[in-house]
Amino acid sequence: MSKIAFLGLGMMGSQMARRLIDAGHDVTVWNRTAERAEPLALLGAEVATTPAAAVDGAEFVVTMLARPDAVDAVLFGVDGVATAPAPGLVWIDMSTIGPDEFRGFAARLPEGVTPVDAPVRGSVPEATSGRLQIYVGASDDDFRLVQPLLSSLGQPRHVGPSGAGAATKMVVNLALVASMVILGEATVLADVLGLDRSTTLDVLADSPIGPTVRAKGANLEASEYPPSFKLLLATKDMMLVDRAIRDAGIELPTAGAARQWMETALAEGAGDRDFSAVAATIAEHARLERVSEG
Fold first, then answer.
1. Same domain, yes or no, for 148 and 23?
2. At what angle do helices 278-293 and 210-222 cross, to 10 degrees?
3. What integer is the mean pLDDT of 144-157?
4. Which of 1, 125, 129, 184 gets the highest tally of CB atoms within 10 A of its CB?
5. d(CA 284, CA 282)
6. pLDDT at 151 over 80
7. Which residues, at least 6 apart from 208, have a Cβ–Cβ distance to it below 8 Å?
8. In terms of DSSP bridges, do strands 120-121 and 132-137 run parallel, antiparallel, or are they unpaired?
9. Do residues 31 and 143 both lie within one domain?
10. pLDDT value at position 252?
11. Claim to verify: residue 140 and residue 22 sit in the same structural domain
């Protein structure tokens, strides 16, 4: 078993840290809001007061944070990981921050720290049950090094060299968000054509966007959007996609349209709801357009 520092105990991170504890690892946790660590302390985790204290003697440090600036602060801020890395430390970033950001952070780490990007696909239920899809960017040797640890959390998949995991997650999230927007627009079309919502969702569950329907259809039927993947975070991810597209000098109109819908939903107050709440935003705008035309 390994000695692991786990930094970031949000909805996903807390469940991932719990699984590592249950797997028998020696886990030290840290979170900016210290109260989030208390349930894990009851399970046997040590609670550190700073990221630097958390990595004291650790073999691996896992970061699971919401934004690139949070990763920057945890690594390089006052009492950050980089101020006191253990010899031979392996940094596994499981956040969604983009390949450029990951490579930039990796380049700033002290000599002897091994960086591995391993962002995840899945939400709280998958994190709780250990069924996350994990996209790992690393050398072959480094992948073999982290694979046993990551297997406690889900299915690690070696997708390429350093940075490839972060890049793969951007591709996956573009497909995920775009399919959610398509579902929202499809249900609006069904409504204006007079189709029954429940029947439509049953039909769409067997369509090419079936996985999205099966995951989020109940939210649309109930018009309730309890967060498992907050719309705020999904919008942040689409902004990362948008920047990568612009940097490449290409145009991807569907990606742009999906991002615009997410930004509209965020601006209208849906940030703390599940990202499937974008369907409600799409429906409301369609309703307003029909009223104005009528």
1. yes
2. 70
3. 97
4. 184
5. 6
6. yes
7. none
8. antiparallel
9. yes
10. 97
11. yes
Residue 184 and residue 148 share a domain: no
Express each pLDDT in 25-48 by its tens digit: 999 999 999 999 999 999 999 999
* Closest residue by Cα to residue 5 from 69, 82, 78: 82
- The verdict on 127 and 175 lying in the same domain is no
Domain ranges, residue 121? 3-162
CA 38 – CA 35 distance, rounded (Å): 6
- The one-letter code for the residue type at 218 is A
Global confidence as pTM: 0.92
Q: Both 36 and 157 in a single domain? A: yes
**CB atoms < 10 A from the CB of 276, how many?**
27
Computed over its alpha carbons, how large is the radius of gyration of the chain? 20
Using one digit for the tens of pLDDT, what is the confidence trace for 169-184? 999 999 999 999 999 9
* DSSP summary character for residue 230: B
The predicted pLDDT at position 292 comes to 79
What is the C-alpha to C-alpha distance for residues 270 and 231, in angstroms, rounded to an integer? 7
The verdict on 146 and 8 lying in the same domain is yes
Mean pLDDT, the chain, whole residue set: 95
d(CA 173, CA 241) in angstroms, rounded, equals 9
Q: How many CA atoms lie within 13 A of 41 on its CB side?
A: 11
Residues in CB range of 236: below 8 A, 6 or more apart: 66, 67, 96
Measured distance CA(89)–CA(197) in Å, rounded: 53
pLDDT digits (tens, 9 = 90+) for 47-92: 999 999 999 999 999 999 989 999 999 999 999 999 988 889 999 9
End position of a domain, from candidates 162, 181, 210: 162
How open is the CA angle 181-184-185, to the nearest 5 degrees? Answer: 90
Tens digits of residue pLDDT in 194-218:
999 999 999 999 999 999 999 999 9
Q: How many domains does the chain have?
A: 2
